Amino acid sequence: MRPPRAPRHPRHEEARDALDALREDQVTTSRPILVEGPRDVAALRALGITGPIEVVNRGWDVARRIAHLVETYGPRGPDGGPALHLLMDWDRTGGRLQTTFRRRLEAFDVKVDEEVRRVLMRCLKPETRTVEGMSGLVDVLGVEGR
Description:
four-stranded parallel β-sheet; alpha/beta; globular
């Protein structure tokens, strides 16, 4: 297995650092990541994310999904920080889902983290607008996937 190639651009390095921080956060807190679908889960696994990942599109309506998240994870994480990471795509549909879930979770006083999405959106927008599209950037980002 060949070593990962160094990032070509500083924005790729910033995206890699955000993914490393996400991976480390999951190792220390087991804070879940909420994504849109199973392909997003596969992409995150390819990028070396091994912690819990929840999927929005499981055939449940938004209200039932929110209730499940609140009951399962509560309003705060084990360290007193956010209960979960929201990581929807940075296209129009993903933006709407991100806003919907953030607002509804915050209505239940659930703290969410959106920083990783902000960084990835800013750094990877020319190459991809989706979480699942990141799986093709393993070499560019220089992360060790599975």
